[in-house]
Amino acid sequence: QLCQAIEECKRVILALPEHSERQKDAVVRLIHLRLKLQELKDPDEDEPNIRVVLEHRFYKEKSKSVKQMCDKCSTIIWGLIQTWYTCTGCYYRCHSKCLPLVSRPCVRAKVSHQAEYQLSICPESGLDSQDYRCAECRAPVSLRGVPSEARQCDYTGLYYCSSCHWNDLAVVPARAIHNWDFEPRKVSRCSMRYLALMVSRPVLKLREINPLLFNYVEELVEIR
Fold this sequence. Notes:
Layout: H1 2-15, H2 21-41, E1 50-53, E2 56-60, E3 67-69, E4 76-78, E5 84-87, E6 93-95, H3 107-113, E7 151-152, E8 159-160, E9 168-170, H4 173-179, E10 185-187, H5 189-198, H6 206-209, H7 218-223
């Protein structure tokens, strides 16, 4: 049935207009079907080598000596006594027991099918617009730290709990483009992974977004 669905999905993709939203959605469906088929082909084990969750493609890690932090529960992964997985797309790491609780979709899919930056500087809308809940896992948060501290991501402008925002630092594209500001800012885990995957993609048309920048930055004039 999966093989038939894959072939049907291929025909749909070829029939749809190129680069259309419907074709992109069909490509995502095709990827999901292929991953499900691959998962069925893998031999059954107590802990399968491959797990697919929210577009993450998790592989069971074999390294026992490396100490990592779990992206879901924010605690240490003890490789010697715990089974853990890494997503090959976005490098999300978590305990085997945390896999069913993963709430963050793989950002690799977004990079592949919607490669664009948020170009407004920290577009804050307030905690009330999030119902005083974490933008990712929906855990209750507040600026007073009760029950959990609300941490703002400088890239999305949204607020996250301490499990989804570890105060990682990253250069924010909007600040670089509009202010030529490359000072690293605090961003959520999801934003950090997305920015890391996007950093080498040539998607910014600088002369269209901020042509005046060429009047003030000598290096840009030289590059042009």
